[in-house]
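look at this record:
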Amino acid sequence: MSTAVGRSASESWRALRAPLLITGLIVLAAIAVSIATSARTSGPFSPDSTKANGARALSALLEKHSVAVRGTETLEDAEESGDGRTLLIGPSGSLDDSDWQQIADAQWSHIILIRPGSRALEALAPGVRATGDLLATRSREPGCELHAATRAGTATVSGPTYTAPDGATTCYGDGIHGTVVRLQLDDRIVDVVGAQAAFSNDQLADDGNAALALNLIGTHRDLTWYLPQLESDSYATGDDQGAPLIPPDVRYIGWALAFAVLVMAIWRGRRLGPVVPERLPVIVHAAETTEGRARLYRRSRARDRAAAALRESALGQLHKAHGIPRRADPSAVVATVAAHTDLDPAMVYEMLYGLPPGTDADLMSLSDALDVLTQEVRHP
């Protein structure tokens, strides 16, 4: 006859409820974080980033001047109609030609390109080309008649320079090419800004950088701050031209895998139960420990250490018995003990604070004397 030894339902529930509760809390926390950060952006020149290369300071400055800043990493937000509004496109990510053309077809009144690539320039700023030269970081005059630049004055700029077609305005350059270019395309204004670092948290307060950024970007009350990600229709169409090597949702897959590993670790991890008393294999009595220590002292002829241990033990008992402070002066201790025991103060001092014994016989005499002294304390 066999007997079932499996867990009952109540035992299984008691064993699993803690891991299930922890897993549920983690899931709820992940959902809350996802909801709280769903509208936020990340990376270089992000309006939410407080790092040196972020742009949280610029975003706060614009909002202080009544410009509503909406950060996004979604391509659809940049493709919607933007009449009477400003679109700022950051330097990150990778879009194909069709994506840039869809942004160009949207009715944005003002587009600002921060350190754009060749595809963005072809679609949104025709005629503007990067020269391949980089300006060193230093304070520069506007060198143009652009109102936003002349109001800001000198600015500390660096970065790539651009050539511009006839009719465009080029500012803050080397006298030939500029790092800020403005185009007027029918009813749309397009600004090309290569001086990304000038508008970052690290350099916004330098020179006239803040004024230049506010004058260029704060032209309308509504600003969509778009940071392109790895979003492209080439995945759906099967066109490999210009497609990045890493899929666009790889970071979300990574977070999901990390969460799965965490849940697995909690599920399979060792569960510590209550403390269980365990019998010691050998019981060593205090007297045996004392005798063993004494033999070690005797073998090494450490009479000074043995005497110090005896005197320390006796002083502890005397301090406690007569209410003497632990840090009392030796003379005060001797006077108090001599008064309570009728012993000669010189003898008491010699027992408690004298020189180390020179022979084993002297050590035994000191031990006997201290024992008599402490006996009188315990049995006055």
In short: Residues 1-6, 232-244 have pLDDT under 50 and may be disordered.
